[in-house]
Amino acid sequence: NSCAWLLIMALHCAISGEVPEVPVISPVSGGIFERRLIEKHLIDNSSDPVNGEQLSADQLIEVKTNDVVRPRAPSATSIPALIKLFQDEWDAMMLETYQLREHVQNVRQELSHALYQHDAACRVIARLTRERDQARQALATLQPTAATSQPAPAAAAGAAGESMEVDGEAVEGLPADVVTKLNKTNKTLSKGRKKRAKSATLATAEEVGSLALQGSQTGIHSSSNPGITSLSMPTPSSGIVLTGGADKHAVLFDLGNEKEVARMKGHKKKVLSVELHPGNEVAMTASADKMVCVWDANSGKKHHTISVHGDEVTGVSLHPCGDYFVAASKDKSWSFSTIETGQTLATNLDQTLQSGFSCCQFHPDGGIFGAGTYDHAVHVWNVTQNSKVATFEHQEGAVTALAFSENGYYLASATDNAMVKIWDLRKGDFNKPLQVLDFEGGYVPQSLAFDYSGAYLAVGGSDVRLYGVKGWSQISTLSDHTKAVTGVAFGTDAKQLITTSLDRSLKLYSL
Questions:
Q1: C-alpha–C-alpha distance, residues 336 and 325, integer Å
Q2: Read out DSSP for 94-137?
Q3: What is the CA radius of gyration of the chain?
Q4: pLDDT 10s digits, 454-498
Q5: DSSP per-residue letters across 397-439
Q6: Which end of the chain is more exposed for a tag (fewer CB within 10 A), N or C?
Q7: What is the rounded distance in angstroms from the CA atom of residue 285 to the CA atom of residue 369?
Q8: What is the SS3 assignment for 29-51?
């Protein structure tokens, strides 16, 4: 054993310089190594540390020795030597602790500096975003707009007559092929509507009056920020609806299977208006965050974000051709954009208005659209000419909802002073409504909808009230909601009614 120990003592590891416990020899360089050290080295380098030649762990030659007990180091053979050894270790540990404290302090200072830079960058981004929005608004103001004076009654009647055919030249920036498509759609729908017969299976007034609650959904939107703010159901036969909520989400919901199809997340504030494409594949949402978003309705994936408005976007409406939509904002402007690319093709900022827009709706023929304001007026615009063709005045109150009848004859407008006015678009007199529905007891109408035949009108407020267009008499009242009704939509042949409310519920009424 003494010979073995002397032999080992004569060997030193080429890496550590210490006497190895498990010595091995490199056949490449002939160097002596501690096995654990050379194996760690080979993991990273695969070469002999002495001469740099290729070396693997399998090539190492272990030196066979008997197990021996190492003698204690001379520095640890007496009590004073042990005390000095412990003192040295303590001093080294204190020095390392001091260095670690210094390092932590430096890291804290670097982190503080980085956070300050991040905060400053956020402030700069916010300022630049605000300046960009102001510049866009100023640019929209400078764009040429048509005169805002009211047209003569005869001319207006021609624009809003029974056929609702409105042709016009392209506005500056609006492509000629787009104008051609809009005019063609307008003419086709106008002619087709004249030939359309009344459905033989349309519900009678008695059947509409017997609509009863069949189901209620309260889990579509979040309970932490409750309230369904808007509803869209362009294809009643599909049983698919789109809802917007105060929780900043829009939800595509299957009424037949009572399940959520897709959830659209991305707005920073509540959703104020939603519009679902008749094919149930594309959805548009307008929000209080000044944005309009275009979504894949089935997956909930966002396609486009449109940010041309300087205030809340209060309404969005799809053009009947299915390729374009209009959005209205509290900043007194409306925009006309394409679904495919999200590009805004035309804007109009009307500085003559006393207040901004509160809602908007395309006429079923697509030649015109109506936009309600917060100062008791409904303005009708020709999109292709970018001009105002008519104005319908309420005495007071903000316009809360608009609805064109599908047959193109009527426009219903509601205000928050408990009144709904019906306007006959076939007449040239825009100062006198055809019918006025005056409510009492603080009733505030929030939503309107005609059925597809144009025979019935639903008014949503603190409850839902159904009217027959013939004689404009009330048929029934549905009082199942506990808060304001924000959306109403008729099902096929007026045999169903879907309603949404700020009480977070979606209700289905049926025969």
A1: 6
A2: HHHHHHHHHHHHHHHHHHHHHHHHHHHHHHHHHHHHHHHHHHHH
A3: 38
A4: 899 999 999 999 999 988 999 999 999 999 999 999 999 999 999
A5: S-EEEEEE-TTSSEEEEEETTTEEEEEETTSS--SS-SEEEE-
A6: N
A7: 18
A8: CCCEEEHHHHHHHHHHHCECCCC
